[in-house]
Amino acid sequence: MVRLNKKVVLTIPGAAISDAVLGCGMTTGRDTDKAAKFGIELTLVEGSSIQIPIHSRVAIVCNLKEYLEVGDHYLYICDVQRGIASYGKRIHGTDEDR
Question: Which of 20, 56, 63, 87 is deepest in the core (most CB within 10 A)?
């Protein structure tokens, strides 16, 4: 999905979903909808079609710059576009901030 749409949002989850996050970390997403399986409520990131858990403390919106195949995984190199903290407060750059 990342290689197709060239966008990714990294999140830091809040304590409210800590058990679900542990379950997600032990489950492959290839054939499983992790949000549905672990009951994680999602919301859209403003200006993006990507959904993140509503209980995220921080969201870091990135554009994919390149990726490398490393064994049976991919390493994604991204440019950070902006960051959003809880309650929608911007924590890092948009074009207007530069």
Answer: 56
Half-sphere exposure of 6 (CA within 13 A, CB side): 5
Q: What is the pTM of this model?
A: 0.74
β-pair partners for 82: 61
Q: What is the DSSP string of 26-55?
A: TS-SSS--HHHHHT--EEEPTTSS-EEETT
Q: Are 67 and 76 in contact (CB under 8 A)?
A: yes
Q: Is-contact 20 38, C-beta < 8 A?
A: yes
Distance CA 58, CA 25 (A): 18
List pLDDT tens digits, range 52-69.
998 898 999 999 999 999
Amino acid at 54: I
**Measured between alpha carbons, how far is 60 from 50 in angstroms, rounded to an integer?**
12
Q: Torsions phi, psi of 18, nearest 5?
A: -60, -40
